[in-house]
Amino acid sequence: MSDLKTIQLTDDVCMPTNHFGCAFGDWVGKTDFQGFRPELAWEALSLALDNGYRAFDGAHVYGTEAILGALLGQRFARGELKREELFVTTKLAHPAAPPHVNLSHLRTWDADAVEDVAQRVRDDFAKSLDELHLGYVDLTLIHWPGPFANQDLALARQARKTIWETFGEFLERGATRAIGVSNFSVAHLQQLAEDAPGIKPAVNQVELHPYCRDPELEAYCREQEIALVAYAPFASGAFGMLQDPVLSEIAAAHGVGVGQVVLRWHLQSGRAALPKTSKASRMRSNQDLFGFALDDAQLAAIDGLGAGEPRRTCPDPREIV
Questions:
Q1: Structural domains in the chain (count)
Q2: Residue 257 domain-assigned?
Q3: Contact of 263 with 18, CB cutoff 8 Å
């Protein structure tokens, strides 16, 4: 990493470290409605663009790519924005979710229920590009390593191999500039390296915050030069993490907010992060990370908050075969 603002993924792809997450809704049980609410994206994404965000983390399953595409198109039309100024990520192959979670069956699928996995990936990718109104994306990720309930390792490995080789097609023709994975454990990464050794993932996007760490995975990704991207960097508002006394004390010492401390911790640890908010003031503070620095003791104190069993807001990827 050359600086705290970017991570070099490949010779010609430089990824910003601060992205705006494009998933909206509740999946941590704070409301009766569990699932995505893309209607919330209109105001939030517009505000994010107004407040300087140029890196956006989306996914086919979120239902917000058409909204992002429409908002970007308006700015392209007015000459306020150029495609080259953006870094857009999409994710594909999200498995079917439990019935109580409102995820569209048209956007989710399990490999054992799809006749042609490669073609389904191609079709979903084409839909994402159409909804974004873009000719290419900057980064494409496998959303999850496999179906949540599947116990057939051979099926899961073959599906990952097929998806990854299909991603290679997108990369070869320039439809994506880089490819990676999301929610992959060390075992998943090692299996993919064995099954499809031609192209190494540039990125592994995982749930990672002060209460949810996997030191083995972090060490493996550093060793393999796979960039880590932290989703749910604030634990999606769960566990009272943003009121943690350790984080609050560090924030007070620097005269910044707790969220800024968490994001600065990610950056100084060599990771990118995906903060999300609907408030313009927080959008600005989430980018105001370069007027202070955490010392070694403060970094260690934050690391220590995740020393026990990870507290997750999403399923544990290690349980997926």
A1: 1
A2: no
A3: yes
| Per-residue model confidence (pLDDT) at position 31 | 81
pLDDT-flagged residues of the chain (< 70): 1-2
Q: How many angstroms separate the CA atoms of 121 and 40, rounded?
A: 27
Per-residue pLDDT, 2:
45
DSSP state letters, 145-171:
SS-SS---HHHHHHHHHHHHHHHHHHH
Q: Residue 54 domain-assigned? A: yes
pLDDT value for 267: 98
Cα gap 185→169, rounded to integer Å = 24
- The count of other CB atoms within 10 Å of the CB of residue 299 is 16
CATH number, domain with residue 158? 3.20.20.100
Q: How far is CA 87 from the centre of its chain?
A: 13
What positions carry a catalytic annotation? Answer: 62
**How are strands ordered across the β-sheet holding 227-231?**
20-21, 55-57, 87-92, 139-142, 179-182, 203-207, 227-231, 272-273
Examine residue 302 and state whether it is found in any structural domain, yes or no.
Answer: no
| Domain of 65, in residue numbers | 6-239+272-278
Report the DSSP pairing between strands 6-10 and 13-16: antiparallel
Residue 300 maps to a domain: no
Angle at CA of residue 177, ends 176 and 180, nearest 5°: 80
**Residue 298 in tokens:** 């403060």
* Residue 206 neighbours by CB distance under 10 Å: 25
- Tell me what pLDDT residue 229 has: 98
E-strand ranges in the chain read 6-10, 13-16, 20-21, 25-26, 35-36, 55-57, 87-92, 139-142, 179-182, 203-207, 227-231, 272-273
